[in-house]
Amino acid sequence: MTITVKNVVKKIRGNLVADQVNLTLHSGTVYGLCGYNGCGKTMLMRLIAGLIVPTEGEIQFDGKVLGKDISFPPSMGILIESPAFLGGMSGFENLKLLASIQGKITDETVRKAIARVGLDPKDKKKYRKYSLGMKQRLGIAAAIMESPELVILDEPTNALDSDGVALTKKLIAEERERGALVIMTCHDHVTLEGVCDTIYTIEHGRITDEKHMDAEGTAE
């Protein structure tokens, strides 16, 4: 998969949240977005996910224009802002319900995704009783369970302890290895530099810096 962002501008209620953004993103790569709160990171993710449409410019997936040729990316898993599930259902029941929309994966695949994020797929506990960390882990599981070509993770390490952060970094590396295109944000620059191949700095909706990382997490 190649995602091409061409001269994208997005205005919301007169505010410029994306300003002439140009990117070319490829499968098998982890891209990080960094910047202060409100700089436009999440809005750029929403644009690429097809949740909002550009005011100007276009976003292409292998040459197909988002919002014209296709309504949404053809294969995508997302966690943007806080995960939200049905409070009266268990983690497995929630993910099984989501998986039923496309019918691409089995119950066993759902269970494996839950186990990958460090949760017990047999746990009957209702989602409303989950801790913040458990909710975050389930959100990550939902994003990766169908092995999508595009994985978008907005602050995936939020509310996670050190073991959870380490597990999330391992999962992102595994997603890259299987050929996924991963876009993520993280408030912790050390974590971002440790997992990303390329990091873009965003200020006032505009990309102001591009940093390529080597295998040791050092800028080249």
TrEMBL record:
The ABC transporter domain, residue ranges: 3-219
Top-level division of the source organism's lineage: Bacteria
PANTHER family reported for this sequence: ABC TRANSPORTER, ATP-BINDING PROTEIN (PTHR43158:SF7), SKFA PEPTIDE EXPORT ATP-BINDING PROTEIN SKFE (PTHR43158)
A Pfam match: ABC_tran
Name used for this protein in its record: ABC-type multidrug transport system, ATPase component
Record bears the keyword Transferase: no
Keyword check for Oxidoreductase: no
Assigned keywords, A-Z: ATP-binding, Nucleotide-binding
Molecular function GO terms recorded: ATP binding; ATP hydrolysis activity
The organism of origin for this protein: Ruminococcus champanellensis (strain DSM 18848 / JCM 17042 / KCTC 15320 / 18P13)
